Amino acid sequence: MHESSNEKNTIAIFGATGYIGLILTHHLDIKDYRLKLFIRDKTRLNYLKESHKFLMCDTPIIRDNLAKIAKELEGIDVIYYLIHSMEKNIKSFSDTDNLIASIIGEAAHKANVKQIIYVGGLGKPDEKHDLSKHLKSRQVTATYLNQFGVPLTEFRTGIVTGEGSASFEMIRTLSTKLPFIPIIPFNNGVCQIIDIDDLITFLDDALNDPVYFDQIIEIGTTYAYNYNELIMIFARVIKKRNLKLINLPILNSLFTESVVARLISWFTRIPFQLAKPLIAGMKSLAVVDKYPIEATDPDSTVICRTFEKSILKASSYRDEITFEGFWKIPKDIQFYLKHKRSGPSFSQYTRNGLFFSTLIHKVPYHSTDTIFENAKLMVHKSQFQHTLSQTVILTILNTLFKREKPYSTSSSLTLSEGSTCKEWRVAAMLQTEEQAFITLSSQFKNTGFLWFQFSITKMDNKDAYVMLRIFFEPISISGHLYWNLAKRLHASILKNMFNAIATPSTQ
Questions:
Q1: Measured between alpha carbons, how far is 154 from 314 in angstroms, rounded to an integer?
Q2: Angle at Cα 241 formed by Cα 235 and Cα 244, nearest 5°?
Q3: Residue 452 clears pLDDT 80, i.e. is over it
């Protein structure tokens, strides 16, 4: 490890709302770095809006704004550059990436930035493997970043695994839902993966360290995995399934990159624009080649986790309840309400492969403590206030779809994370001055995972918002059938629950 010249560097992050960006922001924020985040969508960072440690900037990165961006970079020591475009047209995303990189490189030079740290992609072509256009573009982007002379540290990585990673979600979903793995003609590439926490450690180690200036560093596991292996390993280690490879020669001609990307998008809910470059990379060698970490920093102590260890860690999100979305954020900030509502609002929607039923209701600020106590009592006594007809229907559904792990009612006087109540386990619970929530989890055999969530968010000294939310992750066709049968009940179920916990405190 090398000591940086200043533990309190002022850091700019471009792409702070992406998967890596959100985790890196959280990591650096905890370490008390001064941060300035250049972003397009501020709503994904609303949970940090009260922090005094950094500023947010949403100036569009266009040539006309070069002087303004350079001004905003004044006083910045290090830039983390995490921007990658994912457009349908290859020429469009390549030109966009190169233009943005050129603008940031020139602005950084004008602002006297000491270092740019960039996350690009592994990949080398040979006589048997093409380098996908997206991987090639990510390497070319580096040349545009450093053309104005700011020292560049270029990390090249393969698939980044971790809870919330699109690649991880794709592997997880396919290993859960596929009955077998079809052999795809162009799937002849291999990849050295990198665990998200290992990547963050590398990015931290390189911060303002001259050893890393003007260097390319290729990082990843020692072993290079075939893409079929990744799915099979996940199925075996996490899902206890042994998936077989099956050749379908009649359909091989139909398995083009676009067709496979469409199927992946349908199976996993990952947008087609994101699935397409991931699939295109399946024919590439995304491996460490000429620039191993040892060549730049022989003293590096980072030992990359194997894929098996990485997915075991990533799959613990079910217990930690860092569940919703393609990013990892602390569980106490997952209940941010984007819109204030004057009256009750019930909605059902799909987000990232999860099905939601949500009731939001405004309540008086002074009633929140009583309401939360009522909610805890409801959970503790397993008295969810279902009507007789709802109870009958839910019992039938639970029997048909084999709801697992029937728990007994908790006998403790207080609830805590890990305690149980009938079919539910308390997955998360928190109560602060501004917020309180309880999350319960349950599981159906071969069908999916179910959660019930109750939260209160205090918006000001007058109003607060109660949110009751049921959401479900199907893992099979029967999971989709279960949801379509059960979701019709949710409006009345959530309304009954709200009335039971809120009426005594609001009358």
A1: 26
A2: 85
A3: yes
Q: Read off the DSSP letter of residue 305.
A: P
Residue 327, pLDDT score: 37
- Lowest average pLDDT, out of 64-68, 341-345, 367-371, goes to 341-345
Tokens representing 168?
Answer: 């991880």
How large is the C-alpha radius of gyration of the chain? 25
Residue 285 β-bridge partners: 124, 190
Domain 10-317: give its CATH architecture.
3-Layer(aba) Sandwich (3.40)
267, two tokens: 């199976």
Residues 6+ apart with CB under 8 A from 415: 376, 379, 380, 421, 426, 429, 438
In order, the DSSP letters of 405-428 are -PPPPP-SSS--TT-EETTEEEEE
Q: Is 418 exposed, middle or buried (0-12, 13-18, 19+ CB in 10 A)?
A: exposed
pLDDT in tens, 390-400: 889 988 998 88
How distant, in Å, are the alpha carbons of 92, 101, 162, 213, 295 from that of 75?
33, 20, 33, 19, 31
| SS3 at position 394 | helix
DSSP string computed for 4-61? -S-TT-EEEEETTTSHHHHHHHHHHHHTT-EEEEE-S-GGGGGGGTT-SSEEEE----
CA distances from 45 to 94, 134, 142, 196 (A): 27, 27, 27, 19
**What tokens does 344 get?**
């009750």
301 CB-contact burial (10 Å; exposed 0-12 / middle 13-18 / buried 19+): exposed
Cα separation, 233 vs 242, in Å, equals 9
Residue 50 has pLDDT above 60, yes or no: no
Give residue-wise pLDDT tens across range 454-499.
888 877 677 888 889 998 888 778 888 999 999 989 999 999 889 8
Percent of the chain clearing pLDDT 70 (strictly above): 82
Q: Where are the domains of the chain?
A: 10-317, 341-506
Judge whether 212 and 152 are in contact, CB under 8 Å.
Answer: no
Render pLDDT for 120-176 as a digit per residue (tens, 0 to 9): 989 887 766 677 777 788 888 999 999 999 999 999 999 999 877 878 878 887 887
pTM metric for this prediction: 0.73
One of 3.40.50.150, 3.40.50.1000, 3.30.530.20, 3.20.20.140 is the CATH number of 341-506, namely 3.30.530.20
Contacts of 364 (CB under 8 A, 6+ apart): 462, 463, 464, 506
3-state secondary structure (DSSP) of residue 476: coil
Look up residue 467 and give its DSSP letter.
E
Residue-averaged pLDDT of the chain: 81
The two structure tokens encoding residue 412: 């403790």
Over residues 339-363, the pLDDT tens digits come to 455 668 898 988 766 788 999 888 8
